[in-house]
Amino acid sequence: MRWPFSLSPLEHGAFVFVGLLIYVMVTRIGQQHRHPSAAIAWVMAIAVVPYLGIPLFLMFGTRKLAKARRPASAGPSQAVGTEGPEWALELLAALNVPAPVRNPAIGFHAEGDAALRALLALIDGARRRIDLSAFVLTEDEVGGAVAAALVRSAGRGVQVRLLLDAIGGLRTSRRLVRALRDGGVAVRRFMPVLRNPVRGRTNLRNHRKLAVVDGQALWSGGRNLAVEYFVDVADRPAWVDLSFVVHGPLAAQAHEIFDHDWHAAAGELPQAVPVLPPPPGPAEGACAQLVPSGPDHADDTLHALLVAAAYRARSRILAVSPYFIPDDALLTAWCIACRRGVQLTVVVPRCSNHWMADWARERALRALVAAGARVVQYPAMIHAKVIVVDERLALCGSANLDGRSLFVNFELMTAFYGAAEIAWLAAWTERQIGRSTPYEARPPSWGRDLLEGIVRAVAFQL
């Protein structure tokens, strides 16, 4: 008796052919460019296990939104009046990111309790509007305090919008969301999994972390709204992380980014992130620039900036990241930077909260050490994301140095061009280096080398 769902070899071959045709159409016609290892992984999955590979590709295969198109460049005029490196300003202008602006005040928070106080103070001081985007919001000491502050502000007549990523937001209890909505807070989930599989956006997550108050103050950085990012609990010390507050026109630009994401969460996807003229600001102050990246940008903005920085750096590059799985282009650029005399220092946790990331990073770390880089391991979990290039550029924000942050997620970094801000981030990084131990590059066994390759090629290339 013939099973009704069995296929002949010819029918199976036709199914594989259709699957590969779908891959080519989505990838080439839709301009979904991928790293070769990612392309090989998808093609092999579709060819070998098509009945699983094709549905997975349709659910997770989209890397750029179809409507994300490169508008006319705003031109190099964005760089006028700033002290940042000319190459970075011209590149970011060509990539159509918001223009650099001067801000009256910028303050960093290395300690979690200070960061939480600053966020709550901004929320409680809001008069008209609060826009908060979070990847994780938990019902604990930190998440509860933030939620209560949002409800208090909504009770005072402040317009409060909370955007939660659908995957990261799985840690947000329904009870907490219900309490927020009952308290007058508008809550949206970014690209719910069950709503988007046939649209191919299940894999596109919003990892941006920001709170904008009245369009005048911005709180941002690497911290999620959960207790481990801010305060010690019992015998578990808080993770090392960074956040900052900016008062000035940078906040107005951050509001535009949030507004874009808010409408995207409702299925309203404009052609691209709007590139507006810089809002009016002071003639003096600390110069900073938002660097958003993700599927809503036609280019891989942050990746392009990091690769360019590797070739433009003259003396040093400092990098801090909890997860370190760079693609071949960035890894090659950093190795070349080391060989031409740039002092490259990379700080990673000895053990992160994702063991797969720790396995996948080993090849890259060994290659950097062989090229002459200094790689150190922080003894505890470090979640901050910092890049310092020479004495003229520093980056801080939400993006990790891995394929997901660089090519898939909606991310937000901030470029700082002021001498004081760059010096602060460099000094903070040097303190973490002083608390770390050198990484020992050991030749792997053939089994470990194989497993590292599989994890790197598959788990972090979707």
What topology emerges from the helices and strands here?
Layout: H1 9-29, H2 36-48, H3 50-60, H4 86-94, E1 101-103, E2 105-109, H5 112-124, E3 129-134, H6 141-155, E4 159-165, H7 174-182, E5 186-190, E6 210-213, E7 217-221, E8 243-247, H8 250-265, E9 286-293, H9 301-312, E10 316-320, E11 324-325, H10 328-339, E12 343-349, H11 355-360, H12 362-371, E13 374-378, E14 386-389, E15 393-397, E16 401-402, H13 403-408, E17 411-416, H14 419-434, E18 437-438, H15 446-459
Parallel strand pairs: 3-4, 4-5, 10-12, 11-16, 12-13
Antiparallel strand pairs: 1-9, 2-8, 3-6, 6-7, 7-8, 9-17, 10-14, 13-18, 14-15, 15-17
Helix pairs in contact: 1-2, 1-3, 2-3, 4-9, 5-6, 9-10, 10-12
Question: What can be said about this structure in brief?
Answer:
The chain is 40% helix and 19% strand. With 462 residues, it is an alpha/beta fold. The longest helix is centred in the first third of the chain and has 21 residues, at 9-29.
